[in-house]
Protein: PadR family transcriptional regulator
Organism: Paenibacillus gallinarum
Amino acid sequence: MNILSYGLLGLLTRDESSGYDLMLRIQPHWQAKHSQIYPILSRMENEGLLSARWVEQTDKPDKKMYRVTDKGIQKLLDWMYTPVSTPALRDELNLRMICFQVTNPIVMKRWVDERRDWFESRLAYYEALLANLPEEAEQPGSPYFGEYIVNTKGTMTAKTGIQWCHWVNGLMNNHYQEREATRTH
């Protein structure tokens, strides 16, 4: 079992879902593609952690709906009581910024502007996810509470990222304006 497997089990504790629906629900929090999710679901079904049923659809192919079993819930609970690993930080922009001295400031500004645009799109994305949650999601007893706090973290991270981009651009603008002012005097 990998972390994605446990995440899928967790999502299925709330309601029955198709593999596609699970992919949409997990992607805001974990990078996962169809090619990863479907084999995991199949393996967990074979291990008795999930049950599945086929649903006929008229204008689309039939879809397989998954539900977590008692054995799956126990497996999830066993994982939930293990220590959480530290987050992995892998951001190519960070490495490029460290190497900034060998490039052109215009290129760096483009990177920062692109990242700001990305953070702005992520902010809109997480805000839309929050808007679609029921009001009860803010209550710790709600089955949607986990999504509420994680999506709120997403909005906070995006807002901080946007602020950072503005800060970096401000530092660069001030530096190059001061440099230009000293050259013209």
Notes: Residues 145-184 form the longest helix (40 residues). Helices lie at 3-12, 19-26, 34-46, 70-80, 92-98, 105-131, 145-184. The first strand starts at residue 17 and ends at 18.
